[in-house]
Amino acid sequence: MYWIFIFVVIIIVWVLVNFFISYSKHRRAIVAQGGMKLIYKTLIEGLLRYGSARIIRDEIDLVTIGGTFTDPLCNRECGLWSVSIQRAFALLNIQYRAHIDLGGGKSTKQAWDFPIDMDQEKMLEIIKRKSDEWDIFGIIK
User: Fold this and answer.
1) How far apart are CA 95 and CA 14, in angstroms?
2) φ, ψ for residue 96 (rounded to 5)?
3) What is d(CA 138, CA 135) in angstroms, rounded to the nearest whole number?
4) Which residues of the chain have pLDDT under 70?
């Protein structure tokens, strides 16, 4: 009975070690290509064009850009938005989150998985479509 337990533990350890080795190689490959800000320069610069946008978080395999919504009547901040860009092996995961405090509050979020070599202008168009759907002081207006 103990040999089954030991066998299961060995399998679990082997899987974890292989995952961490692959993850380490993945992160080294991103650094070797110049980092996320260089690899996805077009996408990041496209998102930074909008009003209050700034880089909130910058790590080896993750960049988060965020900003605020402005109430056009009172010219005050009334909500937050963020876009997280994370490279995960063969996919680029992008998550859009937004929250508006006006009218009782409204939130939205969307996630996309793109191939890592997809045209970055097309990625921006897809993100823009989502923000236009929301149609409340959107980040890309």
Assistant:
1) 31
2) -110, 130
3) 6
4) 102-104, 132-141
